[in-house]
Design brief:
344 residues, mainly beta, 2 domains, 7-stranded mixed sheet, 25 strands
């Protein structure tokens, strides 16, 4: 899953001693995890002690007891004994190491995210939530654990939950961010964007791919006015089903968007002022689907799959003064600013 050359993957130059394992200190953990694709090598972890006494871990694959990585060319190469993904001090009362390592691939379906960690002898249970599903991870000697997932962290919205002997719980999110919105149908994650055009009072909100790609999809802008930027009030939002071909071409007029060949989605998106307490969106079966109301900038977006149509969702806006606004259609939407109309 990596572009590699040679028989052994070398250690990067100028690696500091904190990240350099001591010679002879490396040891494989006593377990491995199967890949979701049948026939691919199993995954495991190598632990070592750095030259400064830190605990280091490295994720890789096993082929005939050899530890390495299968590259994009399909060849297996051993990982140098001096290589390490991450190093940390050893903690007795908390996780020493936990992380998500992405192994890229030519096809999105072949991308792997390997979540692994070292929780210590007092770690009792470990579980991982990904793509809305939770499953346990087996805890091995020294509190080591691992899970292999197909896809990118932001698309999966990963959260690791660790429970220790004394009842303490640690939660470690990966690919989860304030402005990142998972796709409800298992597609690529989205990022909420908001901005203004200089000299124009309208605020606009849109969605694009969370991981930037060349000519990636961009929703049309939902634009409205919330009054004084220092004390915005009110709400505006669009309720619209976006289908392949919605909008125009990348680089087209501001606000037009370019949905391209992205599958259909029912989207509710906009922005709210400081006087709004909460925003909820319910689907045709009463479910609250994938969505976020982001503070402090007040943007929000809720996304439904291809089968949901306008009129099937209910938007409920609750204000701090007790008022409630219930709508099924776009509210407070204004045309997008143009270069002409945005001039002072």
């Amino acid at each position: 899953m990596l572009a590699l050359r040679g028989a052994v993957i070398p250690v990067p130059r100028a690696t500091p001693p904190e990240q350099t394992p001591l010679a002879g200190s490396g040891r494989l953990v006593g377990f491995s995890v199967a890949d979701s694709r049948r026939g691919d090598p199993r995954w495991t972890m190598r632990l070592a002690t750095s030259q400064t006494g830190l605990l280091c871990s490295t994720v890789g694959q096993l082929v005939d007891t050899q530890f390495g990585i299968v590259g994009l060319d399909g060849r297996f190469r051993r990982l140098s004994r001096g290589a390490a993904d991450a190093c940390s001090i050893v903690r007795e009362d908390a996780t020493s190491l936990v992380g998500a390592r992405v192994f890229d691939a030519s096809r999105p379906a072949d991308v792997r995210t390997v979540v692994s960690g070292v929780g210590g002898d007092t770690l009792r249970t470990a579980s991982i939530q990904a793509a809305g599903r939770t499953r346990p991870m087996r805890v091995h000697d020294g509190g080591t654990f691992m899970a292999v997932l197909a896809g990118l962290p932001e698309d999966l919205a990963i959260e690791v939950r660790l429970v220790f002997e004394d009842g303490r719980v640690e939660r470690h999110p990966f690919g989860v961010a304030t402005l990142v919105l998972p796709d409800p149908d298992g597609g690529r994650a989205w990022r909420i964007e908001s901005g203004v055009v200089s000299g124009d009072p309208r605020q606009c909100t849109s969605l694009r791919s969370a991981r930037p790609t060349r000519n990636g999809p961009l929703s049309p802008s939902a634009c409205g006015r919330l009054g004084d930027p220092r004390n915005p009030k009110g709400v505006f939002f669009a309720v619209r089903r976006l289908t392949p071909g919605t909008g125009g071409q990348p680089g087209g007029p501001f606000g037009e968007g370019a949905w391209r060949d992205t599958p259909a989605r029912l989207l509710v998106w906009g922005a709210a002022g400081k006087d709004v307490e909460s925003i909820g969106v319910q689907g045709p079966r009463g479910e609250s689907h994938t969505g976020k109301f982001v503070r402090p900038n007040g943007t929000f977006a809720y996304m439904f799959g291809p089968d949901v149509r306008p009129g099937q969702v209910v938007v409920t806006v609750r204000f701090r003064d007790g008022r409630t606004l219930v709508r099924r259609t776009s509210t407070g939407i204004l045309p997008s600013p143009t270069s002409k109309s945005s001039r002072p």
